[in-house]
Amino acid sequence: MTVPTITLNDGNQIPQLGFGVYLVEPDQAERIVSDALEIGYRHIDTAKLYENEDGVGRAVAKSGIPREDIWITTKLWNDDQGKDKAPAAFERSLDKLGLDYVDLYLIHWPKPGQGTFVETWQVFEEIKASGRAKSIGVSNFQPHHLEELFRHSETVPSINQIELHPRLIQQENRDFARRHGIAIESWGPLGQGKYPLLDLPEITSAAEAHGVTPAQVVIRWHLQHGLIVFPKTNSAERAKTNFDVFGFELTDAEMAAIDGLDDGTRGGPDPDTF
Ligand code: NAD
């Protein structure tokens, strides 16, 4: 199965479907990521916060898959922002992963009250120039945080990774990103199991029509919107079906019905106050 790629504003190509490892226990990460690589995933989304970078790294090393064929994203945690702490935090992430470079490094949250994301971005520009992060981006940034970044830097983030699912379709943030050439990644793409997204009739009826599961419908909805998506599961069975989403296509009417579920529900924190 060849997963489509999205070409970023720096020319790099990211697999549009990947595997997320938030809340994957550190001692389970190696096994779960090994299973994902075996299934065919070639894009893993981790973070310093998840405390499983070393398990991810071991799975990559043991897989025998050429390094250049796997996309690895990690993220800088909030209390490591700033020009004094960020360089060492990046080194620690690389060490834990056992890698010479990551494909994507993200500022995990803007933390506007901290006032450090601009100088952190300057560190990210240096890391990218060194070749040890092939692409750099942000996460949980609202358009006004990005505008603040633009006032101080000419490097436009390649990615903004935001909470995005049928209850929170983030139209304004997506439109802003499109205008500025920023690709959007959807975190919590299945709603994190926090509300009964997968039981909603707009989703179950599409699943029945195509003979697939509700989760496959929702993943397909992300892909058809051009979003980058990496659902998480500890189950190899679910990982397999979540990856099997290229044999059907949602109709325009099904896409529109799912778009209509948007009610602005956030499962996660508000980026302005968190
Ligand atoms: P998700 O929406 O991927 O949901 C995961 C939940 O869905 C799990 O409880 C899992 O058991 C369930 N699930 C998975 N496959 C299923 C299936 N086929 N059928 C039924 N249920 C299924 O939530 P997430 O893990 O929070 O988000 C995905 C990834 O996004 C994370 O693993 C992480 O990499 C990233 N993330 C980033 C941030 C951020 O602030 N940047 C925040 C949260 C998550």
Structure overview:
Keywords: NADP, Oxidoreductase. This is Aldo/keto reductase. This protein is α/β, with parallel strands linked by helices and 274 residues long. The model has no long low-confidence stretch (mean pLDDT 97). It has a domain at 13-192 and 226-232: Alpha-Beta Barrel (TIM Barrel), CATH 3.20.20.100. The longest helix is centred in the first third of the chain and has 14 residues, at 26-39. Helices cover 39% and strands 15% of the residues. It is built from 10 helices and 10 strands. An 8-stranded parallel sheet has the order 3-4-5-6-7-8-9-10. Residues 20-22, 45, 108, 139-140, 161, 187-193, 198, 213, 215, 230-233, 238, 241-242, 268 line the site of nicotinamide-adenine-dinucleotide (NAD).
Keywords:
single chain; 274 residues; alpha/beta; TIM Barrel; eight-stranded parallel β-sheet; two-stranded antiparallel ribbon; 10 strands; globular; binds nicotinamide-adenine-dinucleotide
User: Strands across the major sheet, in which order?
Assistant: 3-4-5-6-7-8-9-10
The overall average pLDDT, rounded, is 97
Distance between the termini: 39 Å
What structural category do the secondary elements indicate? Answer: alpha/beta
Shape: globular
Order of helices and strands: EEEHEHEHEHEHEHEHHEHH
Q: In DSSP terms, counting alpha (H) and pi (I) runs of 4 or more, how many helices?
A: 10
**CATH fold annotation of the domain at 13-192 and 226-232:** TIM Barrel
CATH class of the domain at 13-192 and 226-232: Alpha Beta
Family: Belongs to the aldo/keto reductase family.
Organism: Georgenia deserti
Keywords: NADP, Oxidoreductase
Protein name: Aldo/keto reductase
